[in-house]
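Q: Got a minute? One more chain.
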Amino acid sequence: MKGKRLAPMAMDAETFRALGHRLVDQIAEQLTAVPQGPVTPDQAPATVRQVFGLDSPLPAHGEDPEKILRELPAKLFAHSLLNGHPRFFGFITSSPAPIGMLGDLLASAVNPNIGAWVIGPAATEIELQAVRWIAELMGFPVTASGILVSGGNMANMVCFFAARAAKAGWNVREEGLLGKPRLRAYASSETHTWLQKAADLSGLGTGAVRWIPVDRELRMEVAALEHAIEQDRAAGDLPFLVVGTGGSVSTGAVDPLREIAAICHAQNLWFHVDGAYGGFAATVPEAPEDLRALSEADSIAVDPHKWLYTPLEAGCALVRNPEHHRAAFAYMPSYYHFGEETRNFVNLGPQNSRGFRALKVWLGLRQTGAEGARQMISDDIRLSRRMAEAITAHPEMELVTQALSITTFRYVPRDLRASSGRDGVDEYLNKLNKSLLETSQARGEVFVTNAVVRGSFLLRACIVNFHTDEPDVLAVPEILGRIGAELDRTMRPAELAAR
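A: Always. Here it is, folded:
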């Protein structure tokens, strides 16, 4: 090789600047246009592949980056579900904060590996502060250990492994589970499926989880929890972990966390709170009192990419006792000579190579401060309650639950409202609301998802969206009521003809 190396991936500063400025302008134009368009396009996978040429083979020779980027932003926005749309109420995915978008760009430019301090000094220190700020925002001790991970599944799993190592009573990492008492974990039947994954991947097996029934408000029944623990101890099993839910995925229900904490403390069990969705609301006045008890937990999982509006991905695991956290993951092989002058995140989670996801979280908290973050969460809760009021006032909508910023409801034709429970009516209403969900998602005027509560198929609207305002939530019952009436006219079986 003679002279200066010419790498196909290289780009001079002038080109980078020109392309970057143009890309930011293009993104700004697309973001401005989002509220005027549909939440999501009604397109088949084949259509999307055709637009982007995704059935073509790998090219032998590269393309000009200016050509690649010229039309890409417009295509991506036109062929994506836009969770930044003010009428996106699906799942628990927030609208992305613009400062987080810019943070991702800057983080990629520096490109540190935050596995150890020596290879990511500034990034490590920023993540340590971001973790402390997250704990402080929720009223959890700032002396806790923590790590940013991909999302709620991984954050909860990190805490699960910390609990397993701390409460097994033997060196479970070295000796495993063979020939030992069966470890038991407890959670309500409304708990997210991360727990099954954690039990599976940890070697306990999903059968080690005791699913505790819930009350009418979909909160864990504490008496049933105590009975299950007593039964397992009598059988020679070893209870080690109770999971309390701080905002369920389906309805936003919050378990009686204070009562669960008391049981765990009395019986020497690890108390973990899955606050992936609701944890950040713990110190907001509108939140249920039970949520404040997450401050008593041994560990908490939260997702900044939910109620801190951080662009994906960003989850956070917090462990009250730093030694318990480190004891679950730390190894010291000879090829790592990082020293212990500060926190090395390689010892606090399953990843070695870790990206700089902390920057966008840290920047967002700097922009809003604690009060700004709480204000936006309060606004989302207030808007969800306003939606519930509008649903209640609509003659063909039935409100089922409202908790935190999640509202569940269903479309019920006026003449069938008094017939619920009669032969064929509930089955038809489930079928009708399933069709209403699919049709409304395809049309893109609003985007809601579903929940199933006590056998009823419900529509579910979750607000973690700082773009959403009152006209958007008031539109939900009107739009879905209109579509529901259209579907009812064509779907209703003869035996349920208008009475």
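A: Residues 13-79 form one domain.
Q: Perfect, thanks.
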